[in-house]
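Hi R.,

As promised on Friday, here is the backbone we talked about, encoded as structure tokens. Could you run it through your design pipeline when you get a chance and send me back a sequence?
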């Protein structure tokens, strides 16, 4: 199945291009929220009416156009998806994607050096 992603942000960090986007969330809100604490009927209603956005966040770390790291975070519920860029929610998965990208870059550097010998 092909997913459509909506772009939220692109910027540079630590020499990598960071791309942040979102797609629909497959999980049902009832799987993540406790109905005894949160009114799930209201959440469903607000999602259906477009007041809340229910999505999964994806972060990719690219070098020279090549994806070397990625990370995902689901169960995002916001009035505006871009809010997650400023409240710290995206920061952990940005760091995860960067960590993976740096490890892959180091591994590729070693393997490429072996090829050129």
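Update: got your reply. Pasting your designed sequence below so it's all in one thread:
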């Amino acid at each position: 199945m092909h997913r459509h992603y909506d772009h939220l942000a692109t910027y540079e960090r630590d020499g990598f291009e960071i791309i942040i986007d979102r797609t629909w969330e497959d999980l049902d809100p009832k799987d993540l929220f406790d109905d005894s604490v949160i009114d799930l009927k209201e959440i469903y209603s607000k999602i259906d009416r477009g007041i809340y956005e229910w999505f999964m966040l994806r972060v990719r770390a690219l070098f020279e156009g090549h994806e070397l790291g990625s990370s995902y975070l689901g169960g995002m519920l916001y009035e505006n998806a871009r809010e997650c860029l400023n409240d710290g929610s995206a920061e952990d998965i940005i760091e995860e994607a960067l960590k993976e990208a740096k490890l892959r870059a180091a591994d590729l550097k070693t393997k490429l050096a072996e090829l050129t010998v």
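One thing I noticed while checking it: DSSP finds two helices and four strands in the chain.

Thanks again,
M.
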